[in-house]
Amino acid sequence: MRILALDIGGSFIKYGFFEGKKLKHIGKIKTKKRREEFKDQIKGIIKGFKFDALSLAIPYPYDAKRDLWSPPNFPFRNFKLKNFLKQLGKFKIFIQNDANLAALAEAKARGIANLVLLTLGTGLGSGVIINSKLYIGNSYASEIGHSIIVKNGLTCSCGNKGCAEAYISVRALQRYYGKEISIEKLASLARKRDKKAKKAFEIFADYLAILLSNIANIFNPELIVLSGGLTHFGDLFLKQAVKKFGSMAFKQTRCKIEISKLSDLAGVYGALFYALEH
Amino acid sequence: MRILALDIGGSFIKYGFFEGKKLKHIGKIKTKKRREEFKDQIKGIIKGFKFDALSLAIPYPYDAKRDLWSPPNFPFRNFKLKNFLKQLGKFKIFIQNDANLAALAEAKARGIANLVLLTLGTGLGSGVIINSKLYIGNSYASEIGHSIIVKNGLTCSCGNKGCAEAYISVRALQRYYGKEISIEKLASLARKRDKKAKKAFEIFADYLAILLSNIANIFNPELIVLSGGLTHFGDLFLKQAVKKFGSMAFKQTRCKIEISKLSDLAGVYGALFYALEH
């Protein structure tokens, strides 16, 4: 089977063309944000290959029932994604959450049966692999980032109060620092031992430790994988978070914590594995 | 296969003798708390039947590797449970957490593939069923009661701060009321519209709603089942908890919340199903 796997992110579209599991071509282009330009971009990529299945890793929310896609960080809402893709040729179409697919890819690449993945970035995504399969509940994917860790806490992007995402994300780091600043800048300051910047990453690490401990006590997976843009600055928070995690999670846990191995390509490989399994 | 299924609780030992799935005999006796008396009790039950497998639902912690059982609400610690049972005859032995087995029983009885069960009592136990199977992580069972919902919150029985169990349990209710009081008495006061007693159940409901919402967002199961002694007083907190849950969990969730159907017999049936599947 020939599969074209696309990972559609707010900044880049990455794509891989596979024959079976064999990678034949890989590409990466900047994501166009306007609806028509974006559609042309996708068309352009698809025209370049002959394939049996198209598999997409996308940021949610996507309403599969009504085929309505409202990606964050894009100016368009309620885009009929599957309907649009169907018009481009005769192939099977798979659409799945990018964090879920990243989790699937990490589990396959490492040969691990039970794994939880967190994407640390603008938001806080998650994917759960149980018995080597992507876990999807009743209707939508696992949203660990929207579990409440602070009762009556800060208002989250989802409208609730005290969700993990409100404390473990780029926006949270900026809040801890006290003003809007690029994460690259904030990290650079922290590495130069700026007190306020260091403190911001320390607070971040404390909250991350709580979430890691909750995941260990709830799922007790073999491994928690951290991925996403913020892992590039792992030197500023990971050691502290893992140490605090160790003091909080049940002693019997043998759950390890590691940074993503596939990083940039997790979405593409996840989309591949997802298509192969369905 | 003939199976003797025992549910060992702090107050009662319940047991069922099955041929296949067919219940042939059921019994219930008060649990003796002293180690030797307790051992005699178990011996007494076992002698009454001829069976191929003995399956036990027990309160944790149980260290399966080293065969050390340290049940809460019992005065003995580090009891070599499996070793003791082995000496009583030639049969297969299964030992599993009571909340886990209650979850398994509810899932089987209802024909539901993805389900989370909470036991509301002295502590806050949990069991998770995924794809019709009991989910056990890396080494121990799912411990949702020890996920943190209040950063730097109250100290929990496990030593951590802010665990759900510290806010959603008999002890928590007593704390909200302000003094030690039996739950029966507290419930009776609340039903007579005593303000302080009513308030205690309201606070309880608020925290329960947070945990239910977290479970829905993390697992999004078809159903969350509430079991345990406190469900007898569900009229005092369930309606409020479910309403708040509805306003907090993702709108797309179709996760329902119900009281246990098997109640008293969930442990026994869970032990049966567990033995049949292994």
Which whole number gives the mean pLDDT of chain A?
Answer: 94
Greatest interface:
A-B, 39 and 39 residues
Domains of chain A (count): 2
CATH class of the largest domain in chain A: Alpha Beta
* Uncertain regions spanning at least 5 consecutive residues of chain A: none
- Measure the end-to-end span of chain A: 12 Å
Largest sheet strand order of chain A: 3-2-1-4-7
Which value, in Å, is the CA radius of gyration of chain A?
19 Å
Tell me the β content of chain A: 15-25%
Order of helices and strands of chain A: EEEHEEEHEHEEEHHHEHEH
CA-based shape of chain A = globular
Summarize the biggest pleated sheet of chain A. Answer: 5 strands, mixed
Structural class of chain A: alpha/beta
- The CATH superfamily of the largest domain in chain A bears the name ATPase, nucleotide binding domain
- What's the assembly state of these chains? homodimer
CATH fold title of the largest domain in chain A: Nucleotidyltransferase, domain 5
In DSSP terms (H or I, runs of 4 or more residues), the helix count of chain A works out at 8
How is the secondary structure organized here?
2 copies of one chain form a homodimer.
Chain A: E1 2-8, E2 12-19, E3 22-30, H1 35-47, E4 53-58, E5 62-63, E6 68-69, H2 81-86, E7 92-97, H3 98-110, E8 115-120, E9 124-130, E10 133-134, H4 170-177, H5 183-191, H6 195-219, E11 223-227, H7 238-248, E12 256-259, H8 266-277
Parallel strand pairs in A: 1-4, 4-7, 8-11, 11-12
Antiparallel strand pairs in A: 1-2, 2-3, 5-6, 8-9, 9-10
What would a concise description of this structure say?
Chain A is built from eight helices and twelve strands. Chain A is α/β, with parallel strands linked by helices.
